[in-house]
Automatic annotation (TrEMBL):
Keywords: Signal. One of its GO terms (cellular component) is outer membrane-bounded periplasmic space. One of its GO terms (molecular function) is thiamine pyrophosphate binding. InterPro entries: TAT_signal (IPR006311). GO terms for biological process: thiamine transport. This is Extracellular solute-binding protein. SUPFAM superfamilies: Periplasmic binding protein-like II.
Length: 353
């Protein structure tokens, strides 16, 4: 086992140990970052696409500086940060909720200089880390993704994936990805279990295996399976589904009877970065009305956390405001994190395609 693989495994195991809107920011802070380039992470797939098209240009406009963007799953990002604490490879990172909490517990993040992030004032208090170690910059809604040419009647339940007509056409995503993990929790809750009692979900997957055609490593790869016609139905995020639709892929998202699922994402300043102020400006840009409004639109449909940004387009068909998101199926990461490594190992042992 390589050092990188060993460090990554330790990170997974460690999960169980647990300018202001409307102001011309470029004129205010741009001169402070001369000749610097920020190292930031995003997630693969539609996230990377949207950040390159929307966030990076807005950041350059606000600061006059550039950022180097790396697509990385949150667990992989934590592995790299843990292995290079004194000289981290990134200045600001994007995290899912579970990995974000372990990063906080391991002291990997720097408190945000709040004076440099004025858009925090437009976030609900619960969307800001109590110690100022990060902020929730977005939410992802997931449901049942399906090929509209092959499946004429929209599915209404996760149980529909068990139907015999979907033999070999169901896609799964591995539990190393947050999507795979939260979907398993959603299954468990639908069947009477929870984060600490996942046997119902694993039994469901065992019964589902004759229908499984492929297992993707991450949501981006899952989207590729739809695009290449290798699968017809799966769990997926609305932003990935809408991105595929914009590319001409016949896919739509349906609400399960157990309700939509929700995953929130954070941005955090990395401890020991030499660009804390620039990293703060990056987070401030991500929280701005300008950026979040564009992120809610086609083809990304990311749920905003800035209270000044209305829900529109496809998101308006799911919720009208952030308050409605609270009723969606969510995960208690404090309960799940201690068991995460075991669930990943079990999934990898039992799911063979």
């Amino acid at each position: 086992m390589s050092k990188i693989d060993l460090d990554r495994r330790r990170i997974v195991q460690a999960l169980g140990a647990l300018g202001a809107v409307g102001l011309p920011l470029s004129g205010v802070i741009g001169n402070a970052y001369a000749a610097e380039s920020l190292a930031a992470t995003t997630f693969p797939g539609a996230w990377e696409e949207s950040h390159r098209k929307i966030l990076l240009p807005a950041f350059r406009k606000a600061t006059g500086q550039s950022a180097t963007l790396t697509a990385s799953q949150a667990v992989d990002t934590l592995t790299k940060l843990t292995g290079a604490r004194a000289n981290p490879p990134f200045d600001v990172v994007m995290m899912d909720e579970g990995p974000y909490l372990i990063g906080v517990s391991q002291g990997l993040f720097e408190p945000m200089p709040t004076s440099k992030v004025p858009n925090l004032a437009d976030l609900p208090a619960k969307f800001i880390d109590p110690k100022g170690l990060g902020a929730y910059t977005s939410g992802q809604v997931y449901g049942i993704a399906y090929n509209t040419e092959k499946i004429k009647q929209a599915p209404t339940s996760w149980n529909d994936l068990l139907k015999p007509q979907f033999k070999g056409r169901v896609g799964l995503v591995g539990l190393d990805s947050t999507l795979g993990l939260v979907w398993m929790v959603a299954l468990a809750k639908m069947l009477g279990g929870d984060e600490a009692h996942m046997d119902p979900a694993f039994d469901f997957v065992r019964r589902l295996m004759p229908n499984v055609g492929a297992v993707a490593a991450n949501p981006g790869a899952l989207g590729t399976l739809f695009q290449q016609g290798q699968i017809d139905i799966s769990c997926h995020y609305i932003n990935n589904v809408e991105s595929l639709k914009a590319k001409g892929v016949p896919v739509a998202l349906a609400r399960p009877a157990s309700n939509w699922g929700l995953v929130r994402s954070t941005m955090n300043i990395v401890k020991n970065t030499k660009m804390a102020d620039l990293a703060a400006a990056y987070i401030n840009t991500a929280l701005s009305v300008e950026v979040q409004q564009q992120m809610t639109a086609a083809p990304y449909f990311v749920a905003p956390t800035n209270t000044k940004v209305p829900f529109g387009g496809a998101l308006a068909q799911i919720a009208q405001s952030s308050s409605e998101l609270e009723s969606f199926v969510q995960v208690d990461w404090a309960k799940l994190n201690p068991l995460r490594a075991g669930y990943i190992d079990r999934f990898n042992r039992e799911v063979k395609v």
